[in-house]
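Structure tokens please, single chain.
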Amino acid sequence: MRFNIIYLLLGIITIATILFYTSKFGIFGFSSHTDSWGQFGDYFGGILNPVIAVFNLIILIRITKIVKDEDEGREKRQLHLNKEMGLLNLRYEEFKNYKKSIDTHLAKEDFLSNSASFVDLLSEFKSLNERIEFIIPEIAQVKNFTVFRDHLQLNWKNWDGGSIEEKESLNIELREIYGKFIQNLGHQIVTLEEQKAQ
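Here you go.
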């Protein structure tokens, strides 16, 4: 819109310059003298060249501002995208660390017979939860997260004094809940990634 106004003003000034010249020196036909044409060219160029230069300067400033705004917008979008990708990568790495740590505890051979293994799992689970809840605040919405956490904490008493059969039963239950939780957590991370991409 602004460029249309500039072109309109340039056209009006050009026409006004020609009208002023013809009103002053007449329009009785074309001159056959090259001197008259030279004087007309000098007049025309002397009036319009500074006007065109000013308009070119205005256009150059406007284009420079548009390009600068586009660059700043592109940089902001790229920075935001980099931040989101870094956060998603951090979430994914934390998810892998979380899963690896708990898998390691559950895979220990003495997990059923050694109460210390369960205590190690409980203590590491608490610190893992604090980290993952900080990095993935949406984890509270993940199905089976609280079930798995509560199952660990509530069954400590049964684990400590229970028979090997009770521990095996609790272990199977624990692994099922954990498997569902990890599956839901992975799905939540993928869903978050898809939402950020949109």
